[in-house]
Amino acid sequence: MWPEDSGSVGEAVSFPTQGLAAEREAGSFPAEDWSTARQSLAHQQTWDGCEYVAQSYVSHEMQSSTSTIDPALTMRELLEQLPGAQRALFRKYHIGGCSSCGFAPEETLAGVCARNENLNVDEVINHIVESDAADRAMQIEPRELADRMERGEEIHLLDVRTREEFEAVKIEKAQLFTQELMQDILAKWPRQDLVVIYDHKGTRSMDAAAYFQGHGFESVKSLRGGIDAWSVDIDPKLRRYHLEES
Q: Among the three residues 121, 137, 153, which one is the final residue of a domain in this structure?
């Protein structure tokens, strides 16, 4: 259980992970579809004639972030600095996705590269930074979303968590993502509408956002930090929670 936050955020609640697998499958796209979509989009500069990530933005992010990534950083430190680094490493180099290709938290980035066929450290760092820039281009900040909702903009808000999580706490006007809703979205929703997707902490929603981008949606975003950040930054009445391993 998380400790309460200085009185501004409600008491945290917990959900056991056991028994939720079937619910995740019933209400979600296959994870591999999301990952494939993100892998494809992350390496494109244009998509259906529309710029996916502005080259100037990527170049700026690479210049500013590369200087902050020291090959001597431990993997724990790297992931604290760039949470998407593990996804980036697995996507291109098959590092960190399972026990056979994993790494220890105290292992350095240089060490991981050395024992994985002596990968070029600079190349790996550039890939991590480029992926991070693409991730951030797909995100929307809680404050921006709240402001746009207050202005009455047309926004489709999708919750890709489990039904149990959704029923316990959710953002107002959000729809729980299901297979039935997925078919409706792909068949009927205008591709120009703003679609904002959120999960617990903003990780799986990134894959979902890329999936929809790959299906022609021009304005789809992942809520940075998920419903947890929304609770902290926007609506402290929403209870925070964590998933308990069982």
A: 137
Q: What is the CA radius of gyration of the chain?
A: 19
pLDDT tens, the chain, 246 aa long: 233 333 333 344 444 443 333 334 334 444 445 544 444 444 333 223 333 333 333 334 434 444 479 999 999 999 888 878 888 898 789 898 777 788 999 999 999 999 999 999 999 999 999 988 888 889 999 999 999 999 999 999 999 999 999 999 999 999 999 999 999 999 999 999 999 999 999 988 988 998 898 899 999 999 999 999 999 999 999 999 988 755
**Pair 108, 148 in one domain:** no
d(CA 172, CA 170): 6
170 and 224 housed in the same domain: yes
Angle at 165 between CA 237 and CA 140, to 5 degrees: 65
Q: Could you tell me if 69 and 166 lie in one domain?
A: no
Residues 99 and 159 in one domain: no
